[in-house]
Amino acid sequence: MTRRSFVAKALVGGTAIIAAGVVKWKFWGTHTPPFKCPLVLSSFCDEETVRKIGLRYLALVPSENSQAELVARMSAAINRDPPDSANTAEVARQIELTAERDFRSEKILIINNWIISETEARQCALLALS
User: Fold this and answer.
1) Distance of alpha carbon 30 from its chain centroid, rounded?
2) Rounded to whole angstroms, how far apart are CA atoms 121 and 124?
3) Does residue 117 contact residue 103 with C-beta atoms inside 8 Å?
4) Who's near 57: CB < 8 A, 6+ residues apart?
5) Coil, helix or strand at residue 110
6) What angle in degrees, to the nearest 10, is found between the helix axes of 88-104 and 3-27?
7) Sign (positive or negative) of CA dihedral 6, 8, 10, 13
8) DSSP secondary structure string, 9-38?
9) What is the pTM of this model?
């Protein structure tokens, strides 16, 4: 396999995963806000599993054990105020880009045998607190 074909296949695969996540987010639960729904992770997990991951993250990082703190950290990561209902698709896209940057910069955690980004862990924690 050439480098060019590998990159092309990786891009197609990554796009497919993100697209699946967006579709899953649109129909998951009762329209969970983007700060509470890790798109890619929710493609593989049900809501109960995501909540368990969130509870474990809160046990590991007790300084973030409030909705306000989690929202503030995620808002700072995407450089915008907390989301409102008018721009949820854009906020979801920015959060996913932040999660991708977390993986590239090795801001990852292993929680309940899942390898997730710091941003995804915060999303799980926020869902667990709601």
Assistant:
1) 17
2) 5
3) yes
4) 64, 109, 111, 121, 122, 124, 125, 128
5) strand
6) 140
7) negative
8) HHHHHHHHHHHHHHHHHHHSTTT--GGG--
9) 0.71
69: left (phi over 0), alpha (psi -120 to 50) or beta: alpha
pLDDT tens-digit profile of 36-78? Answer: 778 778 778 888 999 999 999 999 999 999 999 998 898 888 8
> Domain coordinates of the chain in residue numbers?
3-129
For every residue of 40-80, DSSP letters joined together read HHHHHS-HHHHHHHHHHHHHH-GGG-SHHHHHHHHHHHHTS
Task: List C-alpha distances in Å: 104 to 2, 28, 50, 122.
Answer: 23, 27, 22, 17
Residues 96-109 pLDDT 10s:
899 999 999 999 99
CA distance 57 to 61: 6
19 is written with which tokens? 């697209």
